[in-house]
Amino acid sequence: MPKHRTLTLSSEQRAALLDRRDHAAQPYLRERAAALLKIADGMKAAQVAEQGLYRKRKPDTIYEWLDRYKQVGITGLLIRPGRGRRPAFFP
Fold first, then answer.
1. pLDDT (tens digit per residue) in 3-23
2. Cα torsion 32, 36, 37, 42: sign
């Protein structure tokens, strides 16, 4: 049986994620912080993806958020520059 990935948070990390979940201006930051807090509380990432958020996500998406948070910290939750569709023409 494969072991599910976990997240152990210090009290400062938990407080920072709680602040992002409750007060971030961007909805995607609130969603990502909520997902990480649920994983830290013992839910499996696949379970969070399926029923732990307002919108269903792919488990791989949750794993990507988890990996970036573990590598970079809270700044890993931000959308990185250069992501998204390129302009159709240069103005």
1. 678 899 999 999 999 999 999
2. positive
